[in-house]
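Chain A, query sequence.
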Amino acid sequence: MNVRLLNLLLLCLLIFSCKADFNPLPEEENIFNLSTEEELQDRAVADRIDKFYDEGLDGAFIGKEKIPIYYKIFEQAEMGSPAILISAGRTEAAVKYK
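Chain A, predicted structure.
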């Protein structure tokens, strides 16, 4: 297929998909008590998150095939049991996940 025709088809697809009448996703119950966008607009909430993140203990070790593995430890005394969260970020900084 010639490149111009392919580009024209992609452009048509883009234009028509932008005009589609998509229904918004239904709002779900926040069973994990995650921060909402509205809460994150509050500077006090953002400051608490920053403080918690900054108090974490940084570390790293060399994994399989000499790949550096970065980690951050957060202790929460009020939690009933320990937990490990594994984030699959490869090219972005850990701060993205705070």
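Residues 36-98 form one domain. The chain has a mean pLDDT of 82.
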